[in-house]
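Weekly modeling sync, notes
Attendees: AB, CL, MP (scribe)

Item 1: holo prediction request
CL wants a bound-state model with acetyl coenzyme *A before deciding which constructs to order. AB pointed out that an apo prediction alone won't tell us much about the pocket. Agreed to run with the ligand included and paste results into these notes for async review.

Input as submitted:
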Amino acid sequence: MRRSRILGFGSYLPANRVTNEELAKRVDTSDEWITQRTGIMARHVAAEGETTSMLATKAAERALADAGVKAEDIDLIVLATATPDYTFPATATQVQAALGITKGVAFDVAAVCSGFVFALTTADKFLASGSHKRALVIGAETFSRILDWEDRTTCVLFGDGAGAVVLEAFEAAGTNEDVGILTTHLRSDGRHREKLYVDGGPSTTGTAGHLRMEGKEVFKHAVGMITDVITDAYAATGYNSSTIDWFVPHQANRRIITASAEKLGISLDKVVLTVQDHGNTSAASIPLALDTAWRDGRLKRGQVVLIEAMGGGFTWGSALFRL
Ligand code: ACO
């Protein structure tokens, strides 16, 4: 059967790193409060004029270099973002142009913090169908632009960044011992909009708006939703918390991550945690964490990796792959 496999990883964080102490000079908060409740120690903020497509392009270039693939050999770009450069065209098309790619197709997907899992799933289905051969899957965000910097309950949690993977289609045996993406599971439930949303948009206010969140409500739903889609991934493949090698969750909050791992019986030494370094970068967080663990040698070829995310909508999803 045709599957897709990951050839390379890349990521990019803007140069401006803002620590909790620095934030505490702008809003009524403290390093102790942020660290204890979220695990976040710093976030990166894009410079004036530095857009989501610029961060995405840098991450994509690094993923292409890591994969040893030329930009011209990419025929599909799926970019997940909730903070596009413009209302249209899709940010993916701007990355396509910046990389000098003139063939194939590029488009965005909107699933907020679950965006990377949605984009990876979409690209995997295109490649498995035989319609396309090599894809760039990117998560990129400039959440700093939609934060209300006066609201201490949200502005301390998020950051900017981008991450990317190169996916390639190949003929696999069709067993769960194959390399490549073995299963994906996506869910959404639009009844939860008001718990995590942006209070603006082209068709409502005509402005970009600001992020609004009922943090406790999000927390309450997150662990259950994450557990459901991971259980689905285990059921579809026969893998379980003991037989996976790495758990690379959406990096929103250390407490959500450890609570999910504990509920699922995933040992904490299998969990890749990078939220301390960049905060919640929404769709960028999983590919940022994957790239970190790939570059520092934790992720190795042949290993089984489980990713999951949950975010605005609500949307949630999981994917399980062998490297
Ligand atoms: N600094 C200092 N104090 C603060 C801050 C801050 N930045 N923010 C809130 N507080 C205060 C509150 O005003 C409140 O004070 P009070 O008791 O005098 O009223 C107190 O701290 C406790 O506030 P809570 O909201 O009850 O704090 P909680 O323990 O629930 O933690 C948090 C808040 C961290 C947002 C938590 O609810 C959470 O992690 N939720 C999940 C949200 C999340 O991760 N969303 C990401 C997007 S979704 C996703 O990616 C999965």
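Recorded for review: The two ends are 17 Å apart (CA to CA).
Action items: CL to compare against the apo run; MP to circulate these notes.
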